[in-house]
Amino acid sequence: MEPAGEADAARVSFLHRRLSASFDKRVVTVAPGARRPYRAEEWRDALVVVESGEVQLECADGGRRAFATGAVLWLAGLGLVALRNESREPAVLVAVSRRAPPADEPAEA
């Protein structure tokens, strides 16, 4: 097991990082006690990092799984219905996805 300082240094974070023009970054905050309905199009092709707090993913069958600061998630195709925050602090998520090419530029295969 790594000492806490080394584990923190290895954590992935996009919150304050400048990304290449090839990528879009979106910050989503789920307030304490809030439930945010899951919309598949919001998370398509996105790598998601829990930057702070804790978020629970609620599945269609009613099950839930919690993810805390530092978790890296892929939310596409999971049968989710909502994201919840049952803690006392905001859950901050950053979603990074590939930017769509301009209309006059062909998409890569």
Order of helices and strands: HEEHEEEEEE
- The CATH topology comes to Jelly Rolls
Q: Which structural class is indicated by helix and strand composition? A: mainly beta
**Spatial strand arrangement across the major sheet:** 1-8-3-6
* Tally of separate domains: 1
Rg, alpha carbons: 15 Å
* CATH homologous superfamily designation: Jelly Rolls
Kindly report the average pLDDT value. 85
Percent range for β-strand residues: 35-45%
In DSSP terms (H or I, runs of 4 or more residues), the helix count works out at 2
Could you describe the largest sheet, including whether it forms a barrel? Answer: 4 strands, antiparallel
CATH architecture assignment: Sandwich
CATH class placement? Mainly Beta
Poorly predicted regions: none
Helix content: 10-25%
User: What overall form do the CA principal axes indicate?
Assistant: globular
Organism: Pseudonocardia humida
Protein name: Cupin domain-containing protein
